[in-house]
Each structure stands twice: as C-alpha cells, then as structure tokens.
Amino acid sequence: MSEKEVRVAIAGVGNCASSLIQGIFYYKDKRDIDVSGLMHEDIGGYKPWDLEVVAAWDIDARKVGYDISEAIFNPPNCTATFKRDIPKLNVKVRKGKVLDGYPEHMKNYPPENVFVLSDEKEDSLDTVVDVLKESKADVLINYVPVGAEKAARFYAEACLKAGVSFINCMPTFIVSDEEWAKKFEIEGIPVIGDDIKSQVGATITHRVLTQLLLDRGVKIDKTYQLNVGGNTDFLNMLERSRLATKKKSKTEAVSSLIPYEMDSRNIHIGPSDYVPWLKDRKIAFIRIEGRLFGDVPMHLELRLDVEDSPNSAGVAIDAIRCAKLARDRGIGGALYSISAYTMKHPPIQYPDWKAKQMVEEFILGKRER
C-alpha cells in the first residue's frame, strides 16, 4: 500500500459507483495534463487517483460475482462512459443484504430497467464486518437506493463494528441523527452525511438562487423544484412511500436558508417523474416567486439539465478524501464542515459560502471537524 492510498468500499454498484470509479482512472491518466472538473485536486496530500476500491456489495445478478471493473458497466447502469478502459481490480462484487433495497413495483418493469435479483447467498452483518477488516477499508460509501432505510443502517452498523468511516450519500438520516453520530464519535470513527449534494445539481443551484434573492432583499413567497430522470433511482422513487426522508432532506436544504417560516404548501421540492429515455440525465425545473421593492412581484425560472451520476461523483471524491484526512488526524464523529459542503441534510446546515470556508480550514488543519 502506498503512503497516500485511500481504501474504499462501496455499497451499491450503480451509476454513482460507476462514475466514481471511472473518475479515479480518468484523473489518473490526466494528472499531468488537465485536472478540470474537480472542486479540489489535492486534499491533505490525497489526489483523486489515490483512491483504491477494495470491496463492494450489490444485489443484482448482473453485478454480483463480477469484478467491479466490469460490474460498473453492466445493466441497469446507464450513466455516461467517459473512461471505458478500467483495469481489472480483483474486487469481486459480493451480495449484500436485500432488506428494503428492492421496491415491489419494480417487478412490473422490464429487466433492462430494474434489478435482476441475484440468487447467491447474502452476506451477513458479521461477514460484511470481516470483509471490511480484511480489505483494510478506510471508508465505505453508501449508495443503496432511496428508501432503503434498513439497508443503509445495516452498512452503517457494519462500519461501526469494523472501525470504518461511513459516507452516507443517501437520504436515510444517520450522520445527522444525534444517536448514530454519537456512536461513531465514541468509537473515534469520522463520518459524513446525509444525502449527497451534487457538484452543480438542482439542490445547490436552488440554494444559490435562494440566497441571491434573499441577499438582494427579495421576500420569497413560493418556490418549487421538480426533477425528472431516467435512471433506476428515479424509477425507484415512483414508490412515493419511500420518499419521506428524501423530500425532507431536499426541502430543508433550501428552507434552512430562509430566515422566516413559509407555509409548507408554498415550498415543494422533490422528484416528479421517471422518463426512461433520459437514462442518467436529470432535468430540474426551479421556480421562485417573490416580491421586490414596493412589494412588486417577480419570479425566476430555471431549467437545469445534467448527467446525474458524474455530478454526484465530483462531490463524493472530496468527501472520501476528507474522511481519510480525519482518520489520519484521529478525529471521530460527524465531520460538520465537509458534511455541510457536500450533503443536503448535514448535522448542521451552513450557507454554502460558509461551508466552503470551513472545508478549506479543515483541510489546512485550522478546524477540527
């Protein structure tokens, strides 16, 4: 192992995992040429190409049993391929606990759109713990589906037992839950969460526009954010009962900036629909209605069209390196700075400019968490 290696385990080998792994090798090839597209090239001496994937879990028969270098390109993954020639990593995708990771309604869709459930034996909690320890993982990044509350907590528990950092990219409230955060703090394990905020996605754009209007004296009366996409995540979210924490996470990411109470009927943020031909593209429609000088009405509308999973990976690659940096420094518990910068529902919400400043201070060692 090199001195600056970050050993990463992955729960959920979907589009986000595909983009993350492609990115590791993309930037490894381009490191002497061009490092555009990164929020940070260097974090405490760790570069994007210092990440090594050492373990992975999924439940799809087209992922389980494959080397992860192959699995990330197998259906139903449909994200952009910007780095195809990934070397064999000698990391076999293992079958994780299914639990609530497979919504019933998906059985009504063709196999190319959904999971094909593997019939291999599931790894128990003890087995996952053993694999994490044997692989010497530093960090596990959680990409299980939205609404898979039990599955997310299963991997969080495994990390607690194995002494591995947990990065929760999904909207199950773990790092922002005081009880869970305290457990990791007692064990001296740094954690980051919850619900990843893309590099330039709907949430960060909505937050920036909201802050701009507030800073310019606009009284915001109503706002919405409607998102459509064609990946498995959007198909999964057609089951509205799985969306409670997702909607709460996305709504609070925006409403936390507004210094007065808004009627819940006047702020609507969340997924809208599944459009298969969009594949991994996500289209967000944002509208903000408010009042200018003299209470004269104004409105702002924006349409954002992005490839969803690379957008997420551009943030995850920073969160992973910050978790490793905290481990090097012996820091445990929720990392407030990088959580606020990279997550929709962090333990403490900060304005984005403040969160960025805190992250820079953390990287330089001027802030503990």
Can you tell me about this structure?
The protein is α/β, with parallel strands linked by helices. It is built from eleven helices and eleven strands. The chain has helices at residues 15-30, 68-71, 125-134, 149-162, 178-187, 202-215, 232-236, 244-255, 308-328, 336-342, 352-363, and strands spanning 6-11, 51-58, 94-95, 139-142, 165-168, 190-193, 219-229, 267-274, 281-291, 297-307, 333-334. The chain has a seven-stranded parallel beta sheet, sandwiched between helices. A four-stranded mixed beta sheet has the order 8-7-9-10. The longest helix is centred in the C-terminal third of the chain and has 21 residues, at 308-328. The protein is globular and about 65 Å long. The model has no long low-confidence stretch (mean pLDDT 94).
SSE diagram, text form:
Elements: E1 6-11, H1 15-30, E2 51-58, H2 68-71, E3 94-95, H3 125-134, E4 139-142, H4 149-162, E5 165-168, H5 178-187, E6 190-193, H6 202-215, E7 219-229, H7 232-236, H8 244-255, E8 267-274, E9 281-291, E10 297-307, H9 308-328, E11 333-334, H10 336-342, H11 352-363
Parallel strand pairs: 1-2, 1-4, 2-3, 4-5, 5-6, 6-11, 7-8
Antiparallel strand pairs: 7-9, 9-10
Helix pairs in contact: 1-9, 3-4, 10-11
The general outline is globular
- How many distinct beta strands? 11
Could you name the ranges where pLDDT drops below 50 across 5 or more consecutive residues? none
Radius of gyration, whole Å: 20 Å
Structural class: alpha/beta
Oligomer category = single chain
Biggest sheet details: 7 strands, parallel
Task: Compute the separation of the termini in Å.
Answer: 27 Å
Strand content: 15-25%
Q: Overall pLDDT, averaged? A: 94
Number of helices: 11
Largest beta sheet: strand ordering: 3-2-1-4-5-6-11
Bin the helical content.
Answer: 25-40%
Order of helices and strands: EHEHEHEHEHEHEHHEEEHEHH
